[in-house]
Amino acid sequence: MMIRPEKPEDAAAIHRLTEIAFKDAPHSDGTEHLIVDRLRMAGALTLSLVAVEAGEVVGHVAFSPVQISSGEDGWYGLGPVSVLPALQRQGIGSALIRQGLSDLSVLGARGCVLLGNPGYYERFGFEADPNLTLADVPPEYFLRKAFSPVYAGGAVTYHPGFYG
Ligand SMILES: CC(C)(COP(=O)(O)OP(=O)(O)OC[C@H]1O[C@@H](n2cnc3c(N)ncnc32)[C@H](O)[C@@H]1OP(=O)(O)O)[C@@H](O)C(=O)NCCC(=O)NCCS
């Protein structure tokens, strides 16, 4: 399995993979594949990594800029992240997330947020933080990983591509 940045010819495979992966996922509204397309169209895919096995895209993770009410820049949102259902629980999602976080840090990011299950994401260093909030979600599912210890925090807004 190889992880690399997406190429233009991967777009259709990423769309299909994301749609399939989220089809039966809890808390999904079934639009995650459209979010990836909109982020790409808007030039907001700061990082878009694919996992490739035998020439097929089997996993994908997207990172896009988020806004924080404090005005602080350098923060990104992780997601959507998808692995082909037949190949889940083999470490592909973890490998994509670890590579993405490492690449983000090299880009000079200050931190990363996501909406997800703490039971999964705490292994990558994500945790809930009362100083960083996302409207209308249970705070224990909105998680952050700071790359630098000093940040102001505030209310987070994802890229408009998330909202259709
Ligand atoms: C979430 C996802 C990307 C993880 O990829 P993966 O390749 O299956 O994950 P890994 O093999 O790296 O990690 C497997 C571990 O994650 C756990 N895990 C996977 N998805 C989880 C979830 N949604 N909640 C909690 N734990 C989860 C597994 O129980 C397993 O834990 P273990 O190592 O303690 O046994 C993949 O399951 C997926 O595409 N799910 C559908 C789409 C989705 O829900 N995306 C994330 C939305 S926040």
UniProtKB/TrEMBL annotation:
Q: Which residues form the signal peptide?
A: none
Cross-referenced InterPro entries, in alphabetical order? Acyl_CoA_acyltransferase (IPR016181), GNAT_dom (IPR000182), MshD_Acetyltransferase (IPR050276)
Q: Give the Gene Ontology MF terms in alphabetical order.
A: acyltransferase activity, transferring groups other than amino-acyl groups
- The residue ranges of the N-acetyltransferase domain are 1-148
Which PANTHER family does the UniProt record give?
A: L-AMINO ACID N-ACETYLTRANSFERASE (PTHR43617), UPF0039 PROTEIN SLL0451 (PTHR43617:SF2)
* Name of protein: N-acetyltransferase
Query: What species was this sequence derived from?
Result: Ferirhizobium litorale
